[in-house]
Structures are given as structure tokens and as C-alpha cells.
Amino acid sequence: MVNREKLERFIIGTHHFSKDEYSLKYRFMLINSMLFVGLFTILSAAIVRFFEEAYVIAAVDISFSVLFIALFFTLRKKKSSLDIISIIGLGIFFAFFTAIVILLKEEQSKLIWYGLLIVASYLLKGHKGGIKVYAITVVTLLSLYLLPSVELYLENHDIIMAIASYSCFALFMTFSELHQSKNIESIRQSADEIASQQKMFYEQTRKNQLTGLANQSVLQE
Questions:
Q1: Nearest-CA neighbor of 110 among 102, 119, 120, 101?
Q2: pLDDT one-digit tens code per residue, 102-121
Q3: Number of C-beta neighbours around residue 31 at 10 A
Q4: How far apart are CA 133 and CA 102, in angstroms?
Q5: What are the helix (H) ranges across 52-111?
Q6: 0.70 exceeded by the pTM?
């Protein structure tokens, strides 16, 4: 339990979240975790590139690492910066995953990275943001596949299966969130109706229904 608390404190920094900010807290933890893992991965790649004497690529990786560090610590200082940093983080990961799809040869599993990006976008930005990232991902993947100057080393069925998987997940998440929003709205309307009925009942108990005058108990108050 102590280790879990320390890990959570490391991820969220000095911020405190109320019970009403449950969703915000876990979105905050998700983007912080993504930035930290991304930083570790890219920095490790930079070290490998340096020893391989690929200094230009290593410099690019280090630049990404510095950006990730800046975003990570900015988010730890300002809770209100979650939305803008989520957008920037998703954009950086999209560029990074696109580079993976292009550069990795004969590796069909590389399309999983795009899928993880779509999942993260739905969790961080809701169905509206998720649909946008899904659409951009599909258009990018099809464009890369159709460009004669780019070789993805993928078969037609790999592309079709990937897009079908992305589409199924996007539809599921979108309809789930819309259904949940509808249920929440229904609950809110029911709560408003109950509050209205309670107010009406309260008024009725304070007045005589025949005379319209205040009851004796109210006068005694």
C-alpha cells in the first residue's frame, strides 16, 4: 500500500483532487505516465543511437526527451494545463508512432502503436477527441500505404485488419460514452424532479391548503 501511495504521489506531484475530480485525477495520471514512459523509451533510443554513431538521430531523440521533461514538470506544477499538454503529448506520440510505422521493416505488430494512441485519445479527450485522432490515424495510414515513395512492408490484409480494429474500437467507445452521458442526464433530470417535489411538499406542509395561511407550527417558529 505504501509503495502504491508513493507511486501515485510521484505521478500526480503535489496536486490534490477532490472526490468530484475522480475522472480528472486518472486522466492526469494517464498523461503523466505516458510522458514518463515516452521519456524513458526515447532517451534509451538516443543512447543506443549515440553508441551506433548515428549522432543526428540521437540529437533528435534527445530533443524529444527534453520536450517530454518540460511537459512532465509543467503538468506537475499546473493542474489546469492538463488539456493543452494532453493535446501536445498526443501530437508528439502520433509523430513518433508514425516514424515507427515507416522505419520498422517487416514488423506487422508496429500498427499496434496507432491502436494504443487511439485508446489514449479516448481516455484523455473523450469521444470527440478520440474520433479526431482515429480519423487522422486512418487517413495517415492509408496515405502512407498508397504513397509510392514509402514502403511499409505490410500486406493489404494487414492494413485492412488494422483499420477494422481501430474502427470497431472507436465505434464501441463512442457509443459507450454517448450511452453513459444519456444515463447521467436522465439521473440528473430525476434528481431535479425529486428536488422539485420535495420543495413543493415542504411548501405544502407550511401552509393550510384551505385558507392559504401559514400553519400553526410555522407561526410558532
A1: 101
A2: 877 766 678 888 888 888 88
A3: 24
A4: 18
A5: 55-77, 82-103
A6: no
